[in-house]
Amino acid sequence: MTAALRLQPISRADHLAFAGSRPSVSHLQLPSWGDVKPDWRAESLGWFDGEGRIVGAGLVLLRAVPRVRRCLAYLPEGPAIDWHDPDLARWLDPMLAYLKGRGAFAVKMGPPVVVRRWSAEAVKEAIADPAARRLGDAEPTSYDSRAADLAERLRRTGWRPAAAGGEEGFAAGQPRYVFQVPFAGRSLDDIQRGLNQQWRRNVKKAEKAGVKVVRGGYEDLPAFYGLYTETAERDRFVARPLSYFQRMWTALTAEHPDRMRLYLAHHDGDVLAAATMLTVGDHSWYSYGASTGRRREVQPNNAMQWRMMCDAHGLGAAVYDFRGITDTLEESNHLLGLLRFKVGAGGEAVEYVGEWDFPLNRLLHKAFDLYLARR
């Protein structure tokens, strides 16, 4: 029988030290992310072995439910534990007991475990195949049976797959499908060769047209935000307020100066595109992007992404993560163009096991699901 683990709150310093001992953890599982979410109460939790060493950590966000003295507990893209331990209960049971004691009626978590991967070529073939309506209909390039086993073990112990939702309010959710470009062991020349012909042509076109990509600071966030609101209207999503990005910049750069970067693509004195990049350990994420419809022919987005990829490579990234993609391959889907853009960078589509819910109070959890469905 495996030894029991003890769970207790830990300091920000201990949490950061543990995160720093791993190749990478999600930026959503760092203490600074709690500062970005003022509507949630954040706690750092640590798992300890019999010798008192921290062997796992997680950031939990707690949010009170209107008119009820209970809260929802959420661990986005976490916690950072041994997900393939045959005795998973020794990790999750202490967490559930602790959060129940903190007044949680339900726990939502997102194990950072990959199930399937599709090469860029496989994704392109799937998009061209009229029989493939979703990415899951296509044959994966690789498959991890341990992830499928993890999903089955979670189901057996009372966890259930979370319903897909937006990012606003209680319908918190992280993407199950993302697009990543592996960098480990690759030169920049090799990564550039992995771009498709259109990407390489567009990067050269932007350079020839005089597009300049520069790094910005806090004072440039309003310029980014102007493009972001235009993008939100064009792509039909709800924009976050400027204060969110200002808070994000302040919190993340205070934790590490390179945790968050801002890039802006200039052309003839006008900012045409802007994006944020986050880095934790050897993982860099393209986080938020924005662009105008003006002068698209000078290809500012390709130029900006290539600069970000070059800088991520210079920081020692093992992977450049384009974040969420749609898994719907039908031409009517307005997000298909974004998928095609990301696939052009080479790399692979990645499916995680998704987010999971554990109802600690079934009645409240059911009422909460109904509340979300009516919003």
TrEMBL record:
GO terms for molecular function: aminoacyltransferase activity. The keyword Cell wall biogenesis/degradation applies. One of its GO terms (biological process) is peptidoglycan biosynthetic process. The keyword Cell cycle does not apply. It holds the Pfam family FemAB. Keywords: Acyltransferase, Cell shape, Cell wall biogenesis/degradation, Peptidoglycan synthesis, Transferase. Belongs to the FemABX family. This is Peptidoglycan bridge formation protein FemAB.
